[in-house]
Amino acid sequence: MNPLATATAAGFFLLSAAEVPNFLAGMMPSLMTIRRFNADERDTGTLRVGEALGTALALAVGVGASLIAHSWWPLVGTMAALVFLIVSYEWAIRSPHEDAQPINMQGNWK
Predict the structure, then answer these.
(1) Which pairs from 52-58 meet CB under 8 Å and 24+ separation?
(2) What is the tens place of the pLDDT at every residue in 26-58?
(3) Which of 55, 77, 81, 94 has the smallest number of Cβ neighbours within 10 A?
(4) What ranges do the domains of the chain cover?
């Protein structure tokens, strides 16, 4: 096995996996915000659209990195990070705080 190819695949594995949170954060709020304001079906639907878009962008980077590295490992790293984060987001979506309200109903908007 070529050590340079191995190092390249490992580097792209790390880079592509590390980009996953950036794509999801660009499309969705934080876990705390989701639990605080996810109070109706429209919110949930919008969050799921964000999950889908962030996932598509992250997978594109994983596939691209795998093509450059001539290895499946960058895509594997991307998918592992996606699974961990999507499970975390789904937990937040399905576990709103007891006093969660739609974001425009917080009482502090004038």
Answers:
(1) 53/27, 54/23, 54/24, 54/25, 54/26, 54/27, 54/28, 55/23, 55/24, 55/82, 55/86, 57/23, 57/26, 57/27, 58/16, 58/19, 58/20, 58/23, 58/24, 58/82
(2) 999 999 888 888 767 888 899 999 999 999 999
(3) 94
(4) 7-98
N residues, the chain:
110
d(CA 14, CA 108): 42
First to last CA, the chain: 65
CB atoms within 10 A of CB 11: 14
Structure token digits, residue 84:
């961990």
